[in-house]
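Standup notes, structure subgroup. Blocker cleared on the NAI input:
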Amino acid sequence: MDNKKTDLLIIGAGPGGYVSAIYAAKKGLNVTLVDAKWVGGTCLNVGCIPTKALVKSAELYQEILHSEHNGIFLENPSINLGIIIDKKDEVKEKLVTGVAFLLEKYGVTVIHGFAKFLNDKEVSVNDDIYTAKNIIIATGSKTKHLNFPGNDLAIDSEVLLNNKELPKTLAIIGGGVIGMEFAFIYASFGVAVTVIEFLPRVLPGVDKEFSSRLMRFAKQLNITILNNAGVTEIKEENGLKTVMFTQKDKEKVVQADMVLEAVGRVPMIDNLGLENTKILHDFRSGVSVDSHMLTNVANIYAIGDVTNIIQLAHVASHQGLVAVDNILGKDREMNYDAIPAVIFTTPTIATVGKTEAMCKEEEIDYEVVKVPYTANGKALIMEAEAGYMKLLRDTSSKKLIGAMIFGKDADNLIATVTLAITKGLSAEDLQETVFAHPTVQELVHEAAMGLDQFGIHFLN
Ligand code: FAD
Ligand code: NAI
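Run returned:
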């Protein structure tokens, strides 16, 4: 065993770890980045990027199927899932290679190996023992599995992302973000999808108004949603999986060619040796940190999914920047007031800041405006009439505090409002900003105008 020393040891090369590594190296630190599996973590290899590559193919196929009133006629369009998966892998490889190139370019030492804490100061990797002035834990999360008979007949999102044969039917246990994104992907490819959700509605993390509206689109795509349903067993019969569940005290079944289990993700701290340290942690809530991303042990930070604060790639990366700045002697805290979240169903759902429900709960006096996509030329051209956006401001400070967007390009639109909320801008600041025409971004301007009754299309 060799003893190795570094300024900063980062465990985990996902969007938390690799972004921190490059940033710290650019700031002059000697950085060692360790990953047991791959550069890019869950997000690049089996998460954000691969799923969105499939979303692109799914939406394109639906556009092709409905292209006739654009004057485009195609005979017998069909799907080759194998080619779609290969294309997804190409995108993933390009990104992973790009990140590996940057790590090398900025002098980060990348070690392939499993890291384990021996105590608060030492970490073993392969045959070496590392000591570092600072350590960042960025080990991410892993799929949560339910405990019922036949659970091994279900697959997780990582396996489904590599599936090259379209099933006729797909059952999805869990109507959260992963479940609903896959439901829309597979249903868009023509698969009959059934979602079995334990709670009274799918996407429990977003406003009811949005999940209810999404149901209309789910139905059009032949997605069946079963709420208040708890799975009790899965059996294999004649090549089909039979999923047994209870709903309102009744025993029911759904049969499908494939079953996806997507009931959440838990912090990845398996065999990390945290029990050999004083770092506060538990298997459900992960590693505890303060607003500086510092654990209770000096010089040991944690970021990303392993902290289980918000399981999103951009949050992991941002927490990483905060941790590195603190390591460099700044006093920087993580602020969660303007974190955008996007669900890539069709239509897309994007949110940032406070919702109306949050304002009511926190007794914040707020004003809200709702702007329909029908008010926007570009949205009509894109056939996205069903969309709308809501913009909220604090009545007393006049600052913008939240937005929810349901519709095409919501993922891009939300960035403008995120910037406005982060920088404490008011509706008036957006009114004074010129937005290009014709773009869906004009909806943001329209909503800001609407908050002062100047808009021409708002509904409030
Ligand atoms: P990870 O990306 O999980 O990386 C952790 C790394 O640590 C892994 O590479 C792992 O091998 C390594 N590791 C673990 N333990 C050790 C150890 N002891 N020693 C060495 N290495 C170790 N988020 C979004 O923002 N947008 C999306 O569209 C989105 N889509 C998703 C789709 C799916 C199907 C899934 C599963 C997730 C999605 N996410 C999305 C969530 C996103 O992937 C995570 O929030 C993000 O990857 C967390 O980054 P991280 O750096 O904390 O951890
Ligand atoms: P999730 O927490 O979003 O959803 C899990 C769902 O499973 C919930 O609706 C829950 O009620 C349901 N559930 C739990 N136990 C169940 C049971 N026994 N039977 C039936 N349903 C049950 O978790 P998910 O979808 O696994 O995703 C994990 C995380 O990954 C997300 O919370 C999100 O942070 C991240 N992610 C982000 C994406 C994005 O930003 N677009 C895309 C995909 C994942």
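Discussed briefly. Residues 2-141+266-327 form a domain with the FAD/NAD(P)-binding domain fold (CATH 3.50.50.60).
Next: hand off to the docking folks.
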